[in-house]
Amino acid sequence: MLEVHGLTVRFGGITALDGVGFSVARGEMVGLIGPNGAGKTTLFNCLTRRHGADAGRVRYEGRDLLAVPPHAIAEAGIARTFQNLGLFPRMSVRDNVLTGAHHRGGAGFLAASLRLPRVRREEARLRAEADDVLDRLALTGVADHPATGLPFGTLKRVELARALAARPRLLLLDEPVNGLNSAEVGEFAGTLRGIREEFDVTVVVVEHHMGFVMGTCDRVVCLNFGRKIAEGPPEEVQRDPAVMEAYLGTA
Ligand code: ATP
Predict the structure, then answer these.
(1) Ligand 1 mean position, distance from CA 10 (Å)
(2) Which atom from ligand 1 is nearest to the alpha carbon of 17?
């Protein structure tokens, strides 16, 4: 589904990604780990076309992803969540989730808006889909509640729901369990396992929480200083001396 070859991104004198390559098969859940500043967010930003690449290629479902304009990423079936929640605090949970569904509507939805009966039907359909996602993530009870004031663990689920409402084929999760307590991490992991099947979605997840990564990912890619230093099954990568050295400064 996704093939990254020799991806290089520089910011002035800093090489944030240095010839990174890996691939993700459809249906897989791949963990992207590495110490602070390793290049994980830069990689996500590249995949979602927030910025370009200085070298390398990215093929997504057989097409050149680096040639896809940023506004067409959602329509191409890619959705992401952010390290710092990007929710609208005063909007209800349902409306926040609907922004994800509208995203996918893109140009088609805009064209439909020229014809009022069609836009009403489209709106009703998107709302039904958003309600379905809310139900699946056990958020129906807070659907009409403004996002502000809800517990952090709930907001993390709302962020996931918003990404899923775009019905992505590739879901990029940026530190989804950061800030959650251990019970919430376990719950989130269970939810993620369920939605993978149910939404037929391929997942790449950036996360520092090793227990979560080891328990949920099929495969792990480890970056350090912009380079890939290890790749493989979670238990193998965890024992890899280069990975241990990157994290602990000692093998
Ligand atoms: P963390 O786990 O702390 O989020 P990360 O692995 O996501 O780190 P990145 O945020 O991708 O790392 O940063 C990789 C490198 O690129 C760092 O040295 C960072 O300072 C640098 N960097 C990232 N974005 C920019 C930018 N817009 N301008 C300049 N340097 C940047």
Answers:
(1) 10
(2) 14
Ligand 1: residue whose CA is nearest its atom 10: 41
Residues in CB range of 30: below 8 A, 6 or more apart = 22, 24, 203, 204, 205, 217, 218, 219, 220, 221
Q: Under a CB-based contact definition with an 8 Å cutoff, are residues 226 and 56 in contact? A: no
Residue 81: phi and psi, rounded to 5, are -110, 170
| Element holding 241 (H helix, E strand) | helix 241-248
How many whole angstroms from 17 Cα to the centroid of ligand 1? Answer: 9
How are beta strands 170-174 and 202-206 bridged, if at all? parallel
pLDDT at 247: 84
232 φ, ψ to 5°?
A: 160, -165
Q: What is the ipTM of this complex?
A: 0.96
pLDDT category, 115, cuts 50, 70, 90?
A: low
Ligand 1 centroid vs 203 CA: distance in angstroms?
Answer: 21
Q: Compute φ and ψ for 200, nearest 5 degrees.
A: 50, 55
Question: pLDDT tens-digit profile of 183-214?
Answer: 999 999 999 998 988 899 999 999 999 999 99
